[in-house]
Amino acid sequence: MENTTHKLLIIVGSVREGRFGPVVGSWVAEQARAHGGFEVDVVDLADIEIPLALPAAPPKFAGDGYPRPAGMAPLTSALEEADAFVVVTPEYNHSYPASLKAAIDWHFTQWTAKPVAFVSYGGAAGGRHAVLHLENVLTELHAVTVRDGLAFPNYFTAWQDGRPLDTEAPGYAKVLLDQLSWWAGTLRAGREAAPYPG
Questions:
Q1: Which residues does the UniProt record annotate as the domain NADPH-dependent FMN reductase-like (predicted)?
Q2: Model-level pTM?
């Protein structure tokens, strides 16, 4: 497979007041740009109109005519154009934020046959419960979840000046990005060779 640059979308999933997500998202974007295998874009869900009430017809069947709010257009476009995703999520009550679930549920085909990696943060568990739930949801949408993720337990003491104190973190990020790049190229080649049967 020829070496190529893949379009990576980093999604900051929390919209909570005082959230830490943008700090983590910025650091992940820095790691992805330094990696060299990606054209990086970041979408912060706090900047997107994401209603909880959904239209009657699911997006899987409605296709291009699905009636999304005009303010959601930047998110929909970014999802469609991406070859791969990194979801940055906290953990709320052993799961992930409602904002992230709503953003996922407003879409379907945009995730299909594309890889998703996770960077989580939280208390003692580091957001791992949120990631377990996200893996189930995104598998249902025919996305491919990447095994190696990043989790930051007790982020409130584990970061300083916008960076994790763990000196191994950049290395873990590289493993995640290497896997994501491989899957992005493989799945893009598959989508171009034949329609995904799902």
A1: 7-155
A2: 0.96
